[in-house]
Structures are given as structure tokens and as C-alpha cells.
């Protein structure tokens, strides 16, 4: 292998699924031009040998890390590489594989939140009455080592087939109660504009469908993808398009990422964020506060903080749930209400998401309640005399 650092490690044949070969015909670059996104994608690191060459993992670990990649591919996005090389653990832990991924525990499941029992067709999950998930790809711009869908994500055998997409559209058409489609995966924004248009067109045609949501890692993992053409495409659907960006650490908010968030919001596409509470990445008051405040500064509302699902080989990312609950309660009142998302657990077996914050209220008699003040932890009793209703 040559010592060319940038595009050398990018021979993943699956990339042709993402970019329709677009990067093969790219024009020469000018220094001041933004990096075209297929080329930025291609700068991701795909092999553990390349990680070892850069001194990011130990040579002696390579056999185990290769084994870990049999469960979930590797893609360390270009956007994360400078931070990782500068020693930022919040980025390294999310993107670099570890031997701990090979330790499975009895509580861990292949399908941790029970998508399969709620999937009438392979690419569609219908759990809640008015909204469905549609997974037009299982590929991503980075592979998060804690991924809860790691049993399908990045695996060739789960790639979307046209027939499966058609079946998903037919299902949505046959269920007029569905008013919202959530494109997820994988990452729907690794698809080219042309492909995305093919996915959006059948949805656009349905009058009962009001909202299209995109769940994506793109703003921080591949910010170059957020082009003016993409914004125009999303707006052209005529639906209320919401972006829910997956972001876990303030250090993901590079100048390029900041620009990507700005492009969505300025372009009329509201953005919320989802984060996963991850040991070593963001499991402190300070790191969560820095993340949520930085997002609100970018006009991005933190929507959910997820306790990590019980996916195989991810125990090393979990902290005790009780500690997680206290951590989030400790942010209430301390930070602007705009900043603090609810903490949620997604129940195994497809039984849904539950808000699990530490209790700040309890009923002590029929008309009397005790509350914990968010300002100083003081216990306050309040009477609510009987009222009709
Ligand atoms: C999480 C999830 C949703 C979205 O839930 P919201 O609370 O609306 O964000 C929808 N469908 C499925 C299957 C989900 O797991
Ligand atoms: S971007 Fe989402 S789906 Fe893709 S690896 Fe990360 S967590 Fe999993």
C-alpha cells in the first residue's frame, strides 16, 4: 500500500451503492472549493491495518479488531480523523473498534429494540400508530461502534432491494393512518440526490403524509453532504421535512459541521438532535452540558438522549441506568430548558420508548405532593386541594 494518506484506504465496493459511482468522474479540486461529498466519504478509513499504520490502534490487537469488523464494518470518517489523531477520546471511542466488541453478555440481543417483530416488510417498521420507519439503506458515513442496529447496518445481505422498497411504499399507501415517515437505516443521506429523489417521490405523492423525518449522522460525519441541492430537494417535497441529527460530543461540531447545521436551518429545514449516553464519551455533566448548549447555539434542539440499547458487544458503553437518570436530572434547571432532552430507554421486544428521568415528584397523600427543587435539591411539599374534572 502506498503512503498516500487520503484516498488510499477506500476500496469498499459497497461505496458504489452510496454514490452511484459519482466519485469516479469528479472534477479536479481547487484549493478553495469545498470537498465534493463522495470524495470526502472516500477519505474514511476502512481497514484496521490503516489504523495501525497511523498509530491509532496496537498492532497486537489487529486479529481481534478484524474479528470485530465481521459484526460491523469500519468507517472512520475524515471529519473525525484530526480530532482522533489529536487524542480526543470522545471521537476515538465512537469510531475506533475495540476488542470489547467481541464480549457478548446474556442481556444483549441481536435485535435489541425489537424492530423485526414490528416489520411487516423488510425495510419498514411500524410500531406506533401514526408513524413508520423506512430504511432505504443500511450503509452509513461512519460506523458507530455502539450502533444498536449493528446486526443489519453495513452488511451487504441487508441492502435494500427494489422489491422491498416497493413493498414498503405499498404498505404505507395501504395505511392512511400513517402521517409521518421516518427515513433511517443506516443513514438515508448517504444516498445520492438522484436515489433520494426516487425514495421521496412515492412519499411526496401521498396526501395523508404530512411529515418526512430524516434520522442522520451526516451533519457531523460527512458535513459536505449538506449541499444547496440537497436542501432544495428536501424542500421540493412540499412536506414538513425535519432532520434529526445524531451527535454525541461537542467536539464533533467542527466548522464544517456548524456550516451543515446552518444550511439546514437557514434553508427552512428544522433540525433536532439525538444523542446516545456513552461511557467515556459524554457521561458527565460537563460534557453533556457542553454538547447540548453548543447545539442550541446552532439552533438545534436536543430531542432525545438515549440510554444505550442492549445490542451485542456494547456493554462497555453503558453506565448504570440510575446514574444516567441522576445525570440528566442534574442538568434540569441548571441549563436552559431548550438544552435538556428527555432521557429515554427503548424497551426490548418492540415495546416502545419510555422516558426514564429520575423522579422529581411523588404523591404523599391524596391532595399533597412532594417535589425536589431543580435549583438546590430542596424537598418542597405542595397541596393541591380537590378540584372537579
Ligand atoms: C423511535 C421510533 C419512532 C419515533 O418515535 P418518536 O417518539 O416519535 O421520536 C418511530 N418508530 C419506531 C419504530 C421507533 O423505534
Ligand atoms: S450512523 Fe446510526 S445507523 Fe449508522 S452506525 Fe451510527 S448509529 Fe448505527
- The residue ranges in which pLDDT falls below 50 over 5 or more consecutive positions are 1-11, 20-29
As a percent range, the share of strand residues is: 15-25%
Structural class, by secondary structure, is: alpha/beta
How large is the radius of gyration? 22 Å
The average pLDDT is 92
- Would you count the extended β strands for me? 12
Query: How is the largest sheet built, in terms of strand order?
Result: 1-2-3-4-5-6-7-8-9
Which word captures the global form?
globular
Outline the structure in words.
This protein is of the alpha/beta class and about 400 residues long. About 30% of the residues lie in helices and about 15% in strands. The termini are far apart. Mean pLDDT is about 90; it is low at about 1-10 and about 20-30. Bound molecules: pyridoxal-5'-phosphate and iron/sulfur cluster. The site of pyridoxal-5'-phosphate has 7 residues, from β1 and β2. Iron/sulfur cluster binds near residues 143, 144 and 187.
What does the secondary structure layout of this molecule look like, with pairings?
Elements: H1 15-19, H2 37-42, H3 48-53, H4 62-68, H5 81-85, H6 89-95, E1 124-128, E2 131-134, H7 162-173, E3 180-183, H8 193-204, E4 211-216, H9 218-221, H10 228-235, E5 240-246, H11 255-266, E6 271-276, H12 285-297, E7 301-306, H13 321-331, E8 343-347, E9 352-355, E10 361-365, E11 368-372, E12 379-383
Parallel strand pairs: 2-3, 3-4, 4-5, 5-6, 6-7, 7-8
Antiparallel strand pairs: 1-2, 8-9, 10-11, 11-12
The structure holds pyridoxal-5'-phosphate and iron/sulfur cluster.
The site of pyridoxal-5'-phosphate has 7 residues, from strand 1 and strand 2.
Amino acid at each position: 500500500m502506498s503512503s498516500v494518506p487520503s484516498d488510499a484506504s477506500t476500496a469498499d465496493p459497497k461505496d458504489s451503492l452510496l454514490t452511484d459511482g459519482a466519485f469516479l468522474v469528479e472534477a479536479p479540486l481547487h484549493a478553495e472549493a469545498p470537498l465534493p461529498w463522495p470524495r470526502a466519504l472516500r477519505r474514511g478509513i476502512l481497514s484496521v491495518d490503516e489504523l495501525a499504520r497511523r498509530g491509532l490502534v496496537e498492532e497486537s490487537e489487529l486479529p481481534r479488531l478484524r474479528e470485530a469488523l465481521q459484526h460491523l464494518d469500519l468507517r472512520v470518517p475524515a471529519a473525525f480523523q484530526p480530532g482522533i489523531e489529536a487524542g480526543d477520546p470522545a471521537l476515538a471511542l465512537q469510531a475506533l473498534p475495540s476488542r470489547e466488541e467481541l464480549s457478548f453478555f446474556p442481556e444483549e440481543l441481536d435485535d435489541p429494540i425489537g424492530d423485526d417483530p414490528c416489520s411487516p416488510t423488510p425495510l419498514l417498521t411500524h410500531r406506533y400508530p401514526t408513524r413508520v420507519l423506512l430504511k432505504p439503506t443500511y450503509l452509513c458515513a461512519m460506523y458507530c461502534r455502539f450502533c444498536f442496529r449493528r446486526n443489519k447496518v453495513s452488511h451487504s445481505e441487508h441492502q435494500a432491494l427494489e422489491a422491498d422498497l416497493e413493498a414498503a411504499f405499498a404498505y404505507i399507501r395501504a395505511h392512511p393512518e400513517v402521517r409521518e415517515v421516518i427515513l433511517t437505516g443506516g443513514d438515508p443521506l448517504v444516498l445520492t440526490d438522484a436515489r433520494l429523489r426516487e425514495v421521496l417521490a412515492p412519499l411526496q405523492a401521498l396526501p395523508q403524509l404530512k411529515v418526512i423525518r430524516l434520522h442522520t449522522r451526516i451533519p457531523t460525519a460527512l458535513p459536505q453532504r449538506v449541499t444547496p441541492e440537497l436542501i432544495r430537494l428536501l424542500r421540493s417535497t412540499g412536506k414538513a421535512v425535519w432532520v434529526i441529527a445524531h451527535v454525541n460530543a461537542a467536539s464533533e461540531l467542527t466548522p464544517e459541521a456548524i456550516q451543515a447545521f446552518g444550511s439546514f436551518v437557514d434553508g427552512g429545514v428544522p433540525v433536532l438532535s439525538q444523542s446516545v449516553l456513552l461511557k467515556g464519551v459524554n457521561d458527565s455533566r460537563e460534557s453533556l452540558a457542553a454538547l447540548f448548549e453548543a447545539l442550541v447555539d446552532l439552533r438545534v434542539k436536543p430531542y432525545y438522549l438515549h440510554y444505550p440499547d442492549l445490542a451485542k458487544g456494547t456493554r462497555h458503553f453503558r453506565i448504570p441506568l440510575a446514574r444516567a437518570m441522576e445525570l440528566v436530572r442534574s442538568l434540569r434547571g441548571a441549563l436552559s430548558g431548550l438544552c435538556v432532552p428527555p432521557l429515554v430507554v427503548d424497551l426490548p421486544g418492540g415495546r416502545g420508548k419510555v422516558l426514564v428521568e429520575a423522579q422529581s415528584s411523588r404523591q404523599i397523600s391524596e391532595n399533597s405532593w412532594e417535589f425536589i427543587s431543580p435549583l438546590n435539591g430542596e424537598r418542597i411539599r405542595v397541596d393541591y386541594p380537590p378540584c372537579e374534572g
